[in-house]
Amino acid sequence: VQKSRACFSNMSSGDRRESLSLVEFNLSSSSILKIQKEDITRWFVDGFSDAIVNPANVRMLGGGGADGAIHRAAGPQLKEACYKVPEVQPGVRCPTGEARITLGFMLPASHVIHTVGPIYDLDNNPEASLKNAYRNSLRVAKDNNIQYIAFPAISCGVYRYPLEEAAAIAISTVKEFGGDFKEVHFVLFSDNIYDVWVKKANEIVGQ
Ligand code: AR6
């Protein structure tokens, strides 16, 4: 397996560093799953077609959490690009479980794939919706020749999906549909979420 030069940019000082918390698993003979504790807005793979996944809402015009951080780091052009994504219903650019792609603008990653996870307490079938969000993000990435993709813990913040269940869905969906990417990354913001993801990955894709 050819190793990538995945790294994290530090936009304030301009230097780069490798993440300290990192584990790797093989998804297939040519594909790696990496789990890291980092800020997804700083993730990129130097010289390759890369995308970060934005846990957005159906309006797709920004919000709090990772969505807010991604919009701030990308600059106002990202919102302009999102406005241009056609509404499928009034106020809905990306229905729950679907995905849309834009450029990354000022982000270090070249593309942003916007997806909408389920609001855990309101969704009729949160498992199916969360699986669709991961699967459709991978599908949109593939259609756009993305080779390296980084996911946050979709729905695990404001949308309050239970962590262990979300991790199981995230990792099993990536195992099922992510085997032809060069690398699929989970870039997780806290020790707690990182630990849950590593434990589930050991169960689901560990040797
Ligand atoms: N890098 C990586 N992960 C992050 C970052 C970051 N910079 N910032 C937060 N997280 P959330 P959701 C983690 O709430 O639950 C927004 O308002 C965070 O710790 O961002 O899908 C949208 O507009 C959590 O584990 O997304 C929607 O309205 C995970 O990212 C709504 O929130 C997801 O938390 C979407 O809610």
TrEMBL record:
<feature type="domain" description="Macro">
    <location>
        <begin position="20"/>
        <end position="205"/>
    </location>
</feature>
<protein>
    <recommendedName>
        <fullName>Macro domain-containing protein</fullName>
    </recommendedName>
</protein>
